[in-house]
Every structure is written in structure tokens, then in C-alpha cells.
From TrEMBL:
Organism encoding this protein: Channa striata (Snakehead murrel)
UniProt GO molecular function: 6-phosphogluconolactonase activity
Keyword Transport: no
EC number: 3.1.1.31
Domain of life: Eukaryota
The reaction(s) this protein catalyses: 6-phospho-D-glucono-1,5-lactone + H2O = 6-phospho-D-gluconate + H(+)
Keyword S-adenosyl-L-methionine in annotation: no
Identification of the protein by name: 6-phosphogluconolactonase
EC top class named in words: hydrolase
Amino acid sequence: MVSALEFPKSSVIQTYTLMAARRVVVFPSSAELGPVLAQLVISRATKAISSHGRFTLGLSGGSLVSILSKELLALPDLDCSKWVVGFCDERLVSFDDPESTYGLYKSQLFSKINIPDSGILTINSSLPVNECAEDYTRKLKEAFPDDDFPVFDLLLLGMGPDGHTCSLFPDHPLLEEAKKIVAPISDSPKPPPQRVTMTFPVVNSARCVAFVSTGGSKATVLKGVLEGSEGPAFPAARVVPTSGELFWLVDDPAAASLTIQVERPGSGTKL
Ligand SMILES: O=C1O[C@H](COP(=O)(O)O)[C@@H](O)[C@H](O)[C@H]1O
């Protein structure tokens, strides 16, 4: 019998080829990135609905909210009646607080599309943070009854200038969370301090994960995440879907320090 330590090199190579191929796609600015992001959402939605009757989408907050909302609303005949939307992370504030990710999507997107209320999985922001995470875990389990960890068709992620993604921050114990679907955090270094977040097992179970990262403030960390020898030091570098696709959609200012080979799409690019 061959022990794990004795695997021949060829098996190791094979293991890595089973992992998702990462595609880094660079656009001159978010004006060119936005339509391709919207097209990615629609293509994965169409595929998901024809294969299993619904499209499950995980949304992040921050700069993604306005980029995504604007581009989706520009599409003709957008039909979201079979969408189920969750939040990759959420800040524990009331929905009318400007920091609420749900609140922002509600005013910029959900109120303008035909997604059913039952298709939007929100936190209960009136609960204490631990109970809020448990309540949101229950909602996700109900929405994904067949999965140990929910398998989303598409997760859209952002990355902060410190390399955080979702509400998974550098050097935080939550980076090692292996059992929970959703975790509470009370000491977020970025305000507000109380949040709930999907964990890496959920993120890495998705069928497709796409980061959207724009602006010069992301250039140094993007190089560290995509090219660095720091390995998983940056939370965003730990996003490696087990068998799903991984895209990095970035603009020129964010990509300014990269030396790896990237894709530079022309007009009409499809992902
Ligand atoms: O706090 C958060 O920040 C990240 C990154 O946001 P960005 O504005 O730098 O793009 C975001 O992905 C996350 O959902 C949010 O809670």
C-alpha cells in the first residue's frame, strides 16, 4: 500500500490538475469589466437553471454592490424569478444603515428586479452576533438541504486592501474554521466590528467563484495574492475552489504590479 507521503510525483501533479484553473482577466477600467461580469452572471444562471432549476448566487458588499447592480439593470429582459441569493458576508447593522450590504442591494438592485422575496436569504440583524450566525446557518441549510456545505452556482467576492475576503481577515482564527457554514465575528478590523461570514469550506465548494477587484489601492495586495510566496497568508489566496472555476476580474490600476500572464479580453469576450 502506498502512504500519502510516498505518492509518486505524477500523482501529485494529477491532484493539482484536478483543482480549478485560475483565470486572471484584466480590463482597462471598471467600465469594461462591468458588462463582462454581468455576462458571467447570466451565463452561469442560464446553465444552473437548465441543469437544476434554480440559480444560487452569493453576493459580497463593498464596491461590488454598485458595479453589479448597474450592469445587471442595464441588461434587457433580466429574469431573476429562479434566483436564490445569499450573502457571502454581512455586517450586523439594521437594514436601513448605510453599512448594511442587504440594504444597499435592496435599494440599488432587488427593488428593481423580479427576484422573489423568498429567494433572498438575509440575516436577522436584530439578533446578537452568535445567534445571528446560527440563524443564517439554518437558513442556508434549509436552502441547500442536500449539501454538507452549500454549493452555490456562483459566488461574487471582493478583496480589501489587506487581502481580506468575505469577513475573513488576515491572521484571524476564523481562517481555520473547517466545520461551520457561517461564522460570527465580533472583532472585525474593518468597521462595523460585528459581522457574520461564510467560511472557506463554503467558499471553496462553489461551482464558480469570481473576484472583482478594482482600483490602485488593491495593486500591492493583488500581486501578493496572485504571485506571492506568502502562500495562504492573505485570506483571498485561500480561495481555491475544490472543483469549481475561479476568476479574478480586475482593472488596470489593480493589476499594475502583476508580472504573471493575464488575459486581456477584447470586445464581445465571454467567460
Ligand atoms: O467589508 C467588506 O469588504 C470587502 C471588500 O470590499 P471592497 O469595497 O474593497 O471591494 C467586501 O468584499 C465584503 O463583502 C465587505 O463586507
